């Protein structure tokens, strides 16, 4: 095997995708993410230039979609505890297919907002369902490696899709944008068909239909709720990368604006290459605590580099921005793996869906609120905003390490 081949196998953990069902899940995730990578860069252009909506309306619709996904996440958790997560994932794919087939019909806010809400709700449910599917397919030792491998595959596919979207942006016609929308719909069909062929989760434990105290049991698990809140702090780092870095680089440093695209490419490459190797630290609950700690330190270093980037000349700015993005990416890798491990480790049988949904609430909130928070507080506060975010992440890392250590004897829960 060539060096490139060995690097590829190590980076995506391909030795974990050893049988047909696991490979089909990986292929479905790749195709699904490829479609998403095609659509996301042209989304606003499609709705404004092709569907005739104004930018404010698109922003309103996306905000409503984010709020709806957060509001419906607890219900999704109950559904996942009641039914086979494989079927929930197929249903999510089917709903998203219908939404994207309907998007070309959008010409008013009254049609746009409900469709975006359905899109965001099904997307959020699919994330938790996919995690539960993996938890049912893989043993305790392979579970986090498999999730890490899927994350690397998905990031690679999104990156490729982003490149493909460039053609539609250059052509800038309704036909080009419709082709992207329909391609995304097809990607969900492929994903649904592949997931439908997976074997039923033989380890899935259904929650009792009369157990009305199930939600209260999650809310009484204070240690878990604290970890879910701390996890949201690390998610702010993702928003800082997506929104804060471009704004900071172009308005506060002397680095060339063209560097932004290269920094995003660097982020994608590092996740593809390092997610599996670094993410394996979080295989146990105690390991997840260490991963959170490392994530906090890496995020603090990254934020400090952005501050230094604004204080030097062009060469210093470029170097500091690169090191800062490396820091934020490593923080993302560690916190992502820990975020998968903690709810799986602490959830009792029949409650995985609810526990995952609690973590998903933070993710959903930061998806629509994170960019505004980063823009107003981090970037708007000059250097103190970056330092504040970095210190908050470091403190969250120490706290999460302590909380995970007190229950480090608990394995990542089996089915």
UniProtKB/TrEMBL annotation:
<feature type="transmembrane region" description="Helical">
    <location>
        <begin position="255"/>
        <end position="279"/>
    </location>
</feature>
<dbReference type="GO" id="GO:0022857">
    <property type="term" value="F:transmembrane transporter activity"/>
</dbReference>
<keyword id="KW-1003">Cell membrane</keyword>
<protein>
    <submittedName>
        <fullName>Putative MFS family arabinose efflux permease</fullName>
    </submittedName>
</protein>
<feature type="transmembrane region" description="Helical">
    <location>
        <begin position="224"/>
        <end position="249"/>
    </location>
</feature>
<dbReference type="Pfam" id="PF07690">
    <property type="entry name" value="MFS_1"/>
</dbReference>
<dbReference type="InterPro" id="IPR020846">
    <property type="entry name" value="MFS_dom"/>
</dbReference>
<feature type="transmembrane region" description="Helical">
    <location>
        <begin position="355"/>
        <end position="377"/>
    </location>
</feature>
<keyword id="KW-0812">Transmembrane</keyword>
<feature type="transmembrane region" description="Helical">
    <location>
        <begin position="25"/>
        <end position="48"/>
    </location>
</feature>
<feature type="transmembrane region" description="Helical">
    <location>
        <begin position="97"/>
        <end position="118"/>
    </location>
</feature>
<keyword id="KW-0813">Transport</keyword>
<feature type="transmembrane region" description="Helical">
    <location>
        <begin position="55"/>
        <end position="77"/>
    </location>
</feature>
<dbReference type="InterPro" id="IPR036259">
    <property type="entry name" value="MFS_trans_sf"/>
</dbReference>
<dbReference type="InterPro" id="IPR011701">
    <property type="entry name" value="MFS"/>
</dbReference>
<feature type="transmembrane region" description="Helical">
    <location>
        <begin position="291"/>
        <end position="309"/>
    </location>
</feature>
<dbReference type="InterPro" id="IPR050171">
    <property type="entry name" value="MFS_Transporters"/>
</dbReference>
<feature type="transmembrane region" description="Helical">
    <location>
        <begin position="315"/>
        <end position="334"/>
    </location>
</feature>
<keyword id="KW-1133">Transmembrane helix</keyword>
<keyword id="KW-0472">Membrane</keyword>
<feature type="transmembrane region" description="Helical">
    <location>
        <begin position="176"/>
        <end position="195"/>
    </location>
</feature>
<feature type="domain" description="Major facilitator superfamily (MFS) profile">
    <location>
        <begin position="224"/>
        <end position="415"/>
    </location>
</feature>
<dbReference type="GO" id="GO:0005886">
    <property type="term" value="C:plasma membrane"/>
</dbReference>
<feature type="transmembrane region" description="Helical">
    <location>
        <begin position="152"/>
        <end position="170"/>
    </location>
</feature>
<feature type="transmembrane region" description="Helical">
    <location>
        <begin position="383"/>
        <end position="400"/>
    </location>
</feature>
């Amino acid at each position: 095997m060539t060096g490139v081949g060995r690097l590829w196998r190590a980076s995506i953990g391909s030795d974990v995708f050893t049988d047909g069902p696991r490979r089909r899940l990986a292929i479905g995730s790749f195709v699904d993410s490829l479609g998403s990578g095609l659509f996301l860069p042209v989304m606003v252009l499609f709705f404004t230039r092709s569907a005739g909506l104004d930018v404010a309306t698109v922003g309103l619709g996306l905000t409503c979609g984010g709020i709806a996904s957060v509001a419906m996440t607890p219900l999704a958790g109950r559904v996942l505890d009641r039914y086979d997560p494989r079927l929930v994932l197929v249903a999510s794919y089917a709903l998203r297919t219908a939404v994207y087939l309907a998007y070309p019909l959008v010409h008013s806010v009254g049609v746009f907002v409900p469709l975006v809400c359905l899109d965001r709700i099904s997307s959020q449910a699919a994330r938790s369902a996919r995690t539960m599917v993996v938890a049912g397919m893989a043993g305790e030792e392979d579970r986090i490696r498999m999730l890490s491998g899927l994350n690397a595959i998905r990031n690679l596919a999104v990156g490729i899709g982003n490149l493909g979207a460039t053609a539609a942006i250059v052509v800038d016609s309704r036909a080009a944008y419709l082709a992207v929308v329909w391609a995304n719909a097809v990607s969900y069909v492929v994903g649904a068909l592949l997931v439908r062929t997976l074997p039923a989760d033989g380890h899935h434990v259904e929650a009792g239909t009369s157990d009305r105290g199930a939600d209260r049991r999650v809310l009484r698990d204070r240690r878990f709720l604290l970890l879910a809140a701390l996890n949201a702090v690390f998610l702010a780092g993702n928003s800082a990368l997506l929104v804060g870095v471009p704004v900071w680089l172009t308005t506060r440093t002397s680095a060339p604006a063209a560097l932004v695209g290269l920094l995003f490419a660097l982020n994608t490459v590092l996740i593809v290459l390092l997610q599996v190797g670094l993410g394996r630290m979080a295989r146990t609950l105690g390991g997840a605590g260490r991963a959170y700690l490392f994530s906090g330190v890496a995020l603090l270093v990254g934020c400090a580099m952005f501050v230094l980037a604004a204080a030097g000349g062009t060469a210093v700015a470029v170097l500091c921005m690169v090191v800062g993005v490396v820091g934020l990416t490593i923080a993302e890798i560690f916190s992502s793996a820990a975020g998968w491990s903690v709810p799986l480790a602490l959830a009792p049988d029949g409650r995985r869906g609810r526990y995952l949904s609690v973590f998903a609430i933070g993710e959903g909130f930061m998806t629509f609120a994170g960019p505004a928070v980063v823009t107003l507080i981090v970037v708007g506060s000059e250097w103190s905003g970056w330092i504040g975010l970095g210190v908050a992440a470091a403190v969250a890392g120490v706290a999460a390490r302590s909380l995970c250590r007190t229950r480090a004897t608990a394995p990542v829960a089996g089915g």
